[in-house]
What does this fold into?
Amino acid sequence: MMALSVSALALLVASAAPAQEQRKPPTPSQAIRGSFANLNKEVLAMAKDFPEDKYDYRPGKDVRSFGEVIIHIVSGNAFAAKAGRGEKAQWDELDAKDYKTKAEMVAALEKSIDDASATLKATPDEKFATTLFPWMAVIEHEAEHFGQLNAYYRVNGLVPPQSRPHQKSNY
It folds into this structure.
């Protein structure tokens, strides 16, 4: 009976170890990489989904249009890629007027995501123990515009992709 109890206890302890590992919070590098990837995935889905004839929608005279917000996010990703590589970088705002179509804006967003993601992937995990720059600032900034784009959807009578019943948001 004692041998059975010891075996049962050993089995219980062994099965609990993987459960504890699953509950471990992400490391700073995992959290930054995951947040950056998930947020950009959501914004890219919106950029691809939003009707092209509404890309010039703006809720007020001095507020960016949907397309201008997308290009503003591209600017942030470009900044993150440069700064993340250690290059001298300042926020160089791209001009949305240089992008004539939804397809051009989506392509620019995809390229900016790829470039910044490559820089982020190449960043050693140890670096995140000393600084989260520029990633945390860019993630926070893009998250604000993600909310703004959600509002643009709703004001136009549309449901954002991540809010549709068949979609699962990463948030």
Q: What stands out?
A: Confidence is low (pLDDT under 50) at residues 1-12. The CA atoms of residues 17 and 23 lie 10 Å apart.
